[in-house]
Structure formats: C-alpha cells, structure tokens
Amino acid sequence: MDSTVEIQGRHLKLSNLEKVLYPATGFSKQQVIDYYVRIAPAIIPHLAGRALTRKRYPNGVDAEFFYEKNAPQHRPDWVKTAPIWSEGNRRMVHYILANDLPTLVWLANLAAIELHPSLALARDITCPTMMVFDLDPGAPANIVQCCQVGLWLREIFEHFGLQSFPKTSGSKGLQIYVPLNTPTKFEFTKTFAHALAQLLEHDHPDMVVSDMKKKVRTGKVFVDWSQNDEHKTTVAVYSLRARARPTASTPVAWTEVERALMKKDANLLIFEASQVVKRFEKMGDLFHPVLELKQRLPDLKKLAEAVANEPITLAAQAEEGPKPVRRRVLREAVTKAAKPPHSRKARRKV
Asked: How far is the CA of 92 from the CAs of 120, 201, 233, in angstroms?
C-alpha cells in the first residue's frame, strides 16, 4: 500500500505502509511513521541543526540493518544537509539535518528507525553542547543497577552546581546528559567524563567499570565516557529502538529513577511508542532544558583541589552507604584520562 501525502507544503510518497517492521508485535511502517509524526514536536528540537546518522532497517528489526551518514542522492531537494569533512574517508560527508516534520516523515518512510544525532551542532562540529554518560549494564545487571550509578553521577554534578538529566536508552541502559551550551571542546568533555568514570570505578569496583572491554562488564555497569567525541553519536531522545518491541529512548524524572532503584523493578523504565507519546502529551518535554540550559564544567586542575577541601558524598541510596571522593583518586583519573596516546598518532575519523 502506497500513499501520497502533503506535509507543510511538501509532497511525499509513502511506500509499503503495511510492511511489519517489528515482527514480535506486528508494529508496521505506518505505525512507525505515525509515532514520529506524533512525537515530532518533542524530537525535532533535539535533532535540528545536528548532523544525523541513521540506522535503517528496510526489512524490519529482525533483519539486516545498515548505518547511513551521507545523504542519499534520491533525497528531495528540500531536505537540508550539512557538509562535514571526513578525515577517515578523505572526503566531505553530507549529513542530513532533520529540521522539520517533512524530513522526519521522509526518514521514517526509509525505515530509519533509529536516529543518532551529533552532540554538537553542525555549524561548529568541534563544540559539544552537552556531555553524556551512557550507562550500559552487563548481564545479569540491568537498568536498576544503572539507576544507582546514575544517582551517583547526579550527586557529583550537584556538588559542582551542575544539573543533569536522565533518559532511558530505549534498549538496556540509562543515559545521563549534562547540558552545557557554552564554548567548550570534545577533548575537554571527553577527558572530564573519562575521569569521572574511572573515579566511580575506583569507589565501586563491584558495580562499575570504565574499561571498554566487554569481557570485564559481566554483572557491572559500563560507564561509557567515549561517546563524548566529535565522530560518535548517541541515540536521540524519543528515537525508536530496534528491539523486539517498539521501545523508545525516553526522558525520565530523577524521582522515577529513584523509584525504579527502590523497587528494583526494571519494567518501570521501559516505554513503548504509545506510552512515550502519552507521557509527552501529559508531562511535556522533560529534556527541553538540555537544549537551553547554560553550564560550564569545572576546570580539571581545580577539580582535585575542590574535592580535597569539601569531599563529595556519593548518593546515599547505595546499600553499603556513602563513600567520599578522594583527591588522589580524582587526580590520578584526570591525569590518566588526559594522557595522550604514545604508541600511535591519534587519527580523526567520522
């Protein structure tokens, strides 16, 4: 079944609307498009102006997929793009900018189920507007353990007067965003995130790991600091995920994170498409402050001195009780995280 529609003055031909993209639930391409139309007022502000990597599933979430960075040649002439130089490919990559509803619907019709924007605006790709921690649980750990780690992170940020905002990944974990919207560089946010990940690992070795090797993650939460990179992307808030059911990356309140931890119930933080739309209609965009809130990270050199004078108490929800952040550990983490690679020349890739 095909259909031609007009959206905000743009004409689009929608194809294979009856095709099932989520076999376990019968969720069709038409329902994927409908979801993105309904959630558009929430998601478009978080996509607009950002280089967008698409994860496409033309034959559904159980079939082969591919990542797409460059805009396809057959795109409508009204789809805006941003040229960004790829050092790895030695050429310009023309990323799509999902600035409006017609573009979003066009992408959904291409079965671009997952949307992964840059942490920076395309006009200044080296300046992230936010810092992110992707909390990834290694089985048998789940999002409940991620809640505990997320609350520890919140406690650290609050000590420095910084606000943070949680969202589910829509998959297994939890993601914590710190809005910046002030001049900075990925080198700084990545170093800062790495230092905090190592610090949490030191204080909670039974629960936290900062090493990217999958073999060390069993039963622990991997605090992925590496997403803070010019050439990496994180799934967009409100984006659908290619899971068995049509779950989406959903902003949540810290009180919901605390409740899931207290009840030890991972299901409290799993939201499918229809639930996400209802939450937005009732609660508004819980992630809106990430777009506008202006914050600055503390200087790394001053960070160790600050905690020496006033130790940070990590979240008291920990069963073993609060633990202080130690100046020596923080200094070692900062030094190690900031140490440039010596075995090879760093290479920039898109």
From this structure: 17, 39, 18
The whole-angstrom separation of Cα 327 and Cα 305 is 7
**Whole-number Å distance between alpha carbons of 280 and 217:** 34
Q: What are the counts of helices (DSSP H) followed by strands (DSSP E) for the chain?
A: 9, 14
Token pair of 238 as six digits: 């409100």
Treating both helix axes as pointing N-terminal to C-terminal, what angle do 300-309 and 186-203 enclose, rounded to 10 degrees?
30
User: 257 — phi, psi (to 5°)?
Assistant: -65, -45
Q: For 33-37, 72-76, 86-90, 133-137, which range has the lowest pLDDT when averaged over its residues? A: 86-90
DSSP 72: P
Question: What pLDDT digit, counting tens, does each position of 222-274 carry?
Answer: 999 999 999 899 999 999 999 999 999 999 999 999 999 999 999 999 999 99
What pLDDT, on a 0 to 100 scale, did the predictor assign at position 332?
Answer: 59
d(CA 29, CA 113): 9
Three-state SS string over 20-68 comes to EEECCCCEEHHHHHHHHHHHHHHHHHHHCCCCEEEEECCCCCCCCCEEE
| Residue 176: strand pairing partners | 133, 166
Say if residue 205 is preceded by a cis peptide, omega within 30 of 0.
no
- Return d(Cα 34, Cα 294) in angstroms, integer: 33
Instruction: Give residue-wise pLDDT tens across range 307-341.
Output: 455 444 443 333 343 344 444 556 555 555 455 44
Pair of tokens at residue 337:
């995280």
d(CA 154, CA 152): 5
Which residues of 169-247 form beta strands (DSSP E)?
174-179, 208-209, 221-224
pTM greater than 0.85 (yes/no): yes
CB within 8 Å of 57: residues ≥ 6 apart: 21, 63, 65, 111, 113, 242
- The candidate with the shortest Cα–Cα distance to 144, out of 219, 209, 217, is 219
| pLDDT, tens digit (0-9, with 9 covering 90-100), for 193-216 | 999 999 999 999 999 999 877 777
